[in-house]
Design brief:
With 223 residues, this protein is mainly alpha-helical. It has one domain. The chain has six helices and three strands, in the order αββαβαααα. Keywords: Cell membrane, Endosome, Glycoprotein, Membrane, Phosphoprotein, Repeat, Translocase, Transmembrane, Transmembrane helix, Transport, Ubl conjugation.
C-alpha cells in the first residue's frame, strides 16, 4: 500500500505515528491526573473534618488527641489505641496543589493540541504526495495504451478509476491510520494504567467489557 512512498514520506509517516501514540496516551494520563486531584481533595477533607473536633490538635504534622484524661470512662490503654491512628495534617497546601493540577491540565491540553495537529497533517500530507504520484503514473499508463483500448473502455470507467478508486486509497493511507494508532494506544495505555493503579477494579471492568461491546454494537445498528 505504501510502495510509492519516498524516504521523506516514510519519515513523515513515522513522525506522525509517534505523535499519534503520544496523543493516544494523553487521555489515560488526564484520567490519572484527575484521580490524583480527587485523592488530594479527599485527604484535605479528612483533615478538615478531623480538626473540627475540639479534642484534637495538629502536632508535628499529625492529628492527635489533646489529653486522654478528658475522656470520662476511658482508660489509658483505650486512649493509646485511639491515639495510634495517626492522620497527617498541616502538610497539604490545597491552593498550591490545585494550581499544580491546573498546570498539568494546561500542559497536557497544549501537548494534545500540538500532537493532534502534527499527527493529522503529517499523515495527510504524506498521503497527498503519494496519491499525486499514483495519479500521474495511472495517467501515464493510460496515455501509453493503443487507440483500440479506448474503443473498448468507456470514459466513465476512466473517470471512476481516476477519482473514486484513488480516493479510496487516499482514505486508507491518510488520517485514518493515525486515528487508529491514537485510539489503539488509548486502549492499551488505559488498561496498563488501570492494572497498575487498581487491578481488581480493572478486572471487573474487563469482565463487563463484552456487555459494553454488545451494547455499543446495538446502538450502532439502531442509529
Amino acid at each position: 500500500m505504501f510502495r510509492y512512498a519516498s524516504c521523506n514520506e516514510v519519515l513523515m509517516m513515522v513522525m506522525g505515528s509517534v505523535c499519534a501514540v503520544l496523543h493516544g496516551s494523553a487521555q489515560p494520563l488526564m484520567l490519572l491526573v484527575f484521580g490524583m486531584l480527587t485523592d488530594t481533595f479527599i485527604e484535605y477533607d479528612i483533615e478538615l473534618n478531623e480538626l473540627k473536633d475540639v479534642r484534637k490538635v495538629c502536632v508535628n504534622n499529625t492529628i492527635q488527641w489533646k489529653n486522654y484524661t478528658a475522656f470520662s470512662g476511658m482508660n489509658q490503654s483505650e486512649w493509646a489505641i485511639m491515639n495510634n491512628k495517626t492522620i497527617p495534617c498541616g502538610i497539604l497546601d490545597i491552593e498550591y496543589e490545585m494550581t499544580n493540577f491546573a498546570l498539568y491540565y494546561v500542559g497536557i491540553g497544549a501537548a494534545v493540541f500540538v500532537l493532534g495537529y502534527f499527527q493529522i497533517s503529517l499523515w495527510v500530507t504524506s498521503a497527498a504526495r503519494q496519491i499525486q504520484l499514483i495519479r500521474n503514473l495511472y495517467f501515464r499508463q493510460v496515455m501509453r495504451m493503443e487507440i483500440g483500448w479506448f474503443d473498448c473502455t468507456s470514459v466513465g470507467e476512466l473517470n471512476t478509476r481516476m477519482s473514486d478508486d484513488i480516493n479510496k486509497i487516499n482514505d486508507a493511507i491518510a488520517d485514518q491510520v493515525a486515528i487508529f494508532l491514537q485510539r489503539f494506544t488509548t486502549f492499551v495505555c488505559g488498561f496498563c494504567i488501570g492494572f497498575v493503579k487498581g487491578w481488581k477494579l480493572t478486572l471487573v471492568i474487563v469482565a463487563a467489557s463484552p456487555l459494553i461491546g454488545v451494547g455499543a454494537a446495538l446502538m450502532a445498528l439502531l442509529s
